[in-house]
Description:
Elements: H1 3-11, H2 20-33, H3 39-54, H4 64-72, H5 87-96, H6 110-122
Organism: Karstenula rhodostoma CBS 690.94
Keywords: DNA-binding
Protein name: HTH CENPB-type domain-containing protein
Amino acid sequence: MDKASRALVEGVPPGVPFSFRALADHREQKAQDQQYLTPWEEEALVKFILQMSNFGYPIRIKFIPALAHRLTLQRPRSARPRKPPHLNWTRAFRKRHPILEARIVGALDWNRHEKNIYPKSEH
């Protein structure tokens, strides 16, 4: 049995018509139900991140899960997730929204660090 036929046979739950289109719709709905944020919440998060970066306050990648969790607090208590999303969610979020760009910031040269910090700590 070829791969497509096997996927069609194994992946069709009861009540879903036996066709590739129905299977694709079912998988899409299942994937959407498993998303951490709803589509409008995700769109609001992207707009917020872009707006903050336009004002000169870029959002660090490590803070994006906390922002997403904060967005979910607007939901009813029964529909809220208990934890913020995992790091893998952040990677997938960035892949879904290529407009968000990540910048790699290099470490400060140690010689410059010593020249800037030493007089301040000595004072």
